[in-house]
Write a structure and sequence with these properties.
four-stranded antiparallel beta sheet; six-stranded mixed beta sheet; globular; alpha/beta
């Protein structure tokens, strides 16, 4: 089980301002740094064999949250517990249990998917016989037979994304963190990746899943967190969130919860 406790991530940004000087009455531009919380006191739990959707508009804090859980970004404060253990005390142990797919993953264009998987498997100190077995299983699961030995630079968007996901699978992690895994994919590729996530859930794996596709999350996720301005504004099953807001779908439910005072959000 993953438990996120009062997690916060503070960044600084530069803000320019103008003020009139007394000497020549000309406007002088000054710059100052201000702090803001990309993730602001967030707490939740995720059980084994559960798909948790993390939904929100651009800039809501979804990616910062996932990067902290994945051990890529250090929290300003708070804790992340994995089966009761504080993951911040042993980041390498955490990473060995997680398969992390970011929204901007870059792959080596000159390698084939098979070569890439062998490299990543060796980084996890897997034995040669286990590497071969794992790669063959992944080829079958993600339907990579047609392009497993082609150069990554020549692959389609869907094939490249499957290769990215395969990289996350090779060491058979307990937890998957997927940040926009179906973004820009065609219907067939998206369907295959969604089927994969469902299959992993049935195997008892945990999936944290961020997406802009509300309808996709509604059919896939056991529970959903709505994040807005770094805070969780609601959480529950899709049915609970629909009942809470009186809306028929996740998009309308989020808009009702986030549009406080007539504020407009892009989702």
């Amino acid at each position: 089980m993953i438990e996120v406790c009062n997690l916060k991530k503070t960044f600084s940004k530069s803000v320019k301002s103008e003020k009139e000087t007394k000497k020549n009455k000309k406007n002088k531009i000054s710059t100052k740094k201000i702090d803001f919380n990309a993730v602001d006191d967030v707490s939740f739990k995720v059980d084994k064999g559960e798909i948790l959707g993390i939904l929100g508009p651009n800039g809501a804090g979804k990616t910062s949250l996932l990067r902290m859980i994945g051990g890529i970004l250090t929290p300003t404060s708070g804790e992340i517990l994995l089966d009761g253990e504080n993951t911040l005390k042993d980041i390498n142990k955490l990473k060995s249990k997680i398969g992390y797919l970011s929204g901007n993953t870059k792959l080596y264009a000159r390698l084939t998917p098979r070569e890439l998987l062998k490299i990543f498997a060796s980084l996890y100190e897997m034995e040669e016989k286990d590497i071969t077995k794992s790669i063959e299983e992944i080829i079958d699961i993600l339907k990579m037979e047609e392009f497993i030995d082609n150069k990554i630079g020549a692959l389609s968007t869907g094939q490249t994304q499957r290769t990215s996901i395969a990289r996350c699978l090779v060491h058979s992690p307990e937890i998957y963190i997927f940040d926009e895994p179906t973004l820009g994919l065609d219907v067939i590729s998206s369907k295959d990746i969604i089927s994969f996530m469902k299959r992993e859930r049935e195997r008892g794996k945990t999936v944290l899943y961020s997406t802009h596709y509300m309808e996709e999350a509604e059919t896939l996720c056991d529970r959903i967190l709505f994040i807005h301005k770094g805070k969780i504004i609601a959480q529950g099953s899709p049915e609970e969130l629909r009942n809470m807001t009186g809306k028929n779908n996740m998009r309308d439910a989020f808009i009702k919860l986030a549009n406080i005072g007539g504020e407009s959000n892009e989702i």
